[in-house]
Amino acid sequence: MLEEEYQATHRPREAQRNLPPLETPFEYSIRDARLQDMPDVREIYNHYVANSTVTFDEVPMTLRQMRSKFQHATKLGMPFIVAESPSEQILGYAYVYPWKEKAAYRFTVENSIYLRPASTDKGLGKVLMAELIARSKAAGLKEIIAVIADKGAEASIQMHKNFGFKEIGHMGKVGFKFDRWLGTVLMQKSLK
Ligand SMILES: CC(C)(COP(=O)(O)OP(=O)(O)OC[C@H]1O[C@@H](n2cnc3c(N)ncnc32)[C@H](O)[C@@H]1OP(=O)(O)O)[C@@H](O)C(=O)NCCC(=O)NCCS
């Protein structure tokens, strides 16, 4: 190795100390979602529709469908929140939605949480989930159900367990995506 190459790759400790951090800090704030956020929310969700088995949707969700989901949930007073970066990019979202339309199910919801791929594994999922649970409780909801793919969604299953969701069932071979059969793990948390 030439002297100048060595100098370039082996900086003295003093110089290393003054280097800026390699990654910009991962900063965000959590707020209520707005109708104008739905194109970003849809983009995040459709990434997983096209590339993963964490959702059993195979056809990209339209903006109209995403807006109508948002409007229905918020009309019922159910939380729909987003994490936003300082430059106002939506990094992820979480919401709850009626588990079933029949009236007696009115205190039971299903949750949904998706992060932009570059925003995963940095603790944001935990923050959004904690906020979603707190807001669901404040809204008077009593039970949250998570329906999670039994393959490819290990992070989600583990995170739900960490938040006290209990496995209440496992349906095998109910979905067929990317040429393979998939099941779902059902998990439930009571908001006492
Ligand atoms: C699932 C998801 C919301 C989790 O959010 P995240 O920010 O990546 O996760 P966090 O960094 O907050 O970690 C939360 C917990 O998940 C678990 N976890 C995270 N990544 C994991 C992995 N690769 N494998 C197993 N467990 C993992 C850990 O238990 C972690 O808790 P800990 O750090 O206290 O140990 C996020 O990864 C995501 O959007 N994934 C793709 C979409 C998806 O699967 N959505 C859920 C559909 S049901």
List the helices and strands and how they pair.
Blueprint (H helix, E strand, L loop, with lengths): L2 H7 L3 H5 L11 E4 L5 H14 L11 H13 L4 E5 L5 E9 L9 E8 L8 H15 L4 E7 L4 H9 L3 E12 L2 E11 L2
Parallel strand pairs: 4-5
Antiparallel strand pairs: 1-2, 2-3, 3-4, 5-7, 6-7
Helix pairs in contact: 3-4
The protein binds coenzyme A (COA).
**Order of strands across the biggest sheet?**
1-2-3-4-5-7-6
Quote the beta fraction: 25-35%
Cα Rg: 21 Å
Parts with pLDDT < 50 across at least 5 consecutive residues? 1-16
Helix- and strand-based class? alpha+beta
Q: Determine the fraction of residues in helical runs and give it as a percent range.
A: 25-40%
Question: Helix count, per DSSP?
Answer: 6
Taken from the alpha-carbon principal axes, the silhouette is globular
Instruction: List bound small molecules.
Output: coenzyme A
Ends apart, CA distance between termini: 66 Å
Secondary-structure element series: HHEHHEEEHEHEE
Round the mean pLDDT to the nearest integer and report it. 92
Largest sheet: 7 strands, mixed
Q: How many extended strands?
A: 7
